[in-house]
Amino acid sequence: MAIRKKLVLLIVAVSVPVFFLATFMQNWGASVAEKNLQDASTQVRIVKKQYASAQAHCPAIIRKLQTGLPELQQKKSTPSVMRSYWLMADCQTAMRRHSDAANSYAQLVMLEPQAARWHGQRAESLLNAGRLSEAARASRLSVQLKPDDFRWRLQEARILSKIGRFDAAVHAYEVALKLAPLEQVNGVADEFNQLQKMLGNAEYDLHAQQYGRI
């Protein structure tokens, strides 16, 4: 019994420091990841403005963010995880790596599926990547989640026009024009005019005037 007791005490004596060391390492790793995230926020804001700057700096920024993700996920720091994917998407967009950006936005969609903006921004990346059918589906989701948001209505109209769903595009433009801020009405009406003209609609000018006030 004495030997067993000593063995138990020895195991406890070894386990407790190991536990505290593991906890310390986990917290330290998460702290480093948070610090890298803060640094990346500042860096991305600067480098994303120019393609050459993004090409030079974004790969290293993305690698750091990716390295820190497991620590942030283990800590269950969802806002920091989301911020990491958002910054990666910003960098990938600035580098014109649109499919990669769409993948980052897909992660944000999984984390916050009811947020229209992630579906909308993913649709924009898919559109820029030439993945039009996927862009149309993502755009539809953003509109369903936030039907009164002008940005997503206009985006849907443009995507529908690109994939040749012209009747649906006409309807989407009509809705977008009703929601458009006053300073953007004329620009959207011009797009709508061009679509109607391409479709051979003789009434396109009057039709646009109904919404565009031009």
TrEMBL record:
Superkingdom in the source lineage: Bacteria
Upper taxonomic lineage: Bacteria, Pseudomonadati, Pseudomonadota, Betaproteobacteria, Nitrosomonadales
Pfam families in alphabetical order: TPR_16, TPR_8
UniProt-listed PANTHER family: DNAJ HOMOLOG SUBFAMILY C MEMBER 7, DNAJ PROTEIN P58IPK HOMOLOG
Chain coiled-coil ranges: none
Name of the protein this chain belongs to: Uncharacterized protein
Keyword Manganese recorded: no
InterPro entries the UniProt entry points to: TPR-like_helical_dom_sf (IPR011990), TPR_rpt (IPR019734)
Keywords for the protein's UniProt record, in alphabetical order: Repeat
Organism per entry: Pseudomethylobacillus aquaticus
